[in-house]
Design brief:
- Belongs to the aldo/keto reductase family.
- Keywords: NADP, Oxidoreductase.
- The chain is an alpha/beta fold.
- The chain has a single domain, classed as TIM Barrel, CATH 3.20.20.100.
- The chain contains eleven helices and ten strands.
- It has an eight-stranded parallel beta sheet with strand order 3-4-5-6-7-8-9-10, with helices on one face. The chain has a two-stranded antiparallel sheet with strand order 1-2.
- Helix 3 crosses helix 4 and helix 7 packs across helix 8.
Amino acid sequence: MEKVELNNGVKMPIIGFGVYQVPDAEECERSVYEAIQTGYRLIDTAAVYENEEAVGRAIKRSGVPREELFITTKLWIQDAGYENAQKAFQASLSRLQLDYLDLYLIHQPYGDIYGSWRAMEKLYQDGLIKAIGVSNFDDDRIMDLIIHNKVKPAVNQVETHPFFQQTETEKFLKDNDVQMESWGPFAEGRNHLFSNETLKTIASKYGKSIAQVVLRWLVQRNIVVIPKSVHKERIVENFDIFDFKLDNEDMKNIEKLDMGKSAFLDHRDPETVKRLSNMKYKINTSIKSGTM
């Protein structure tokens, strides 16, 4: 398994398994279990996905030693603030049935992110989190955190795919020693990604699928990627990207697909801020060590 080294020395697998939009508990547990059996060691979830418990059961059932796994979850907007973030972290840890997290991210750049970050710094210093970072933060917000806090974000997880390549953000994060991580690598199939002629031609050249080409393209940019699937054959296929390498011509041809804008939403749009800030997840009050 190829890994990247974060700015605090922690090693993170360059490919992982995401569980966004897998709310069904049985399906989520099965998919994560199959991913771990396939060889994935990075598992990415979030409180707002409402599947941390299923992820935790799959981890426990896998039998893989904890130290071999890299588990990420995220703090949602409703839990922003110093005290709230500490409680939310403990609740996530309990749902996952873990003693520590490898990576904890502020999921959205809204609410009391400064109080949340101070809470995460404390949890990091206490050894309960191996690394802390953010998701969906623009470059200026990253710089603000770097300048005004003790611990620099280790990761920024942002939308990255062939139609929104984020090359300027990639350079900024690299220059500031923050690891870039891609969510939505397949753009959820938008813009006809899985029938795109450029990607189809490249895939045919290597005897690979379009999905494998996209993941390989991201890995060669040194971007961590977390594809999701609930189908075993695709879970296996997405992991099988280390036996070929795209040449410079392939990389340049994929560069031409960039549309320079999100396929989903603009995080600076006031309506986006309002909609996401009003989105709530159910808090499992049955978990004793982490009730909120």
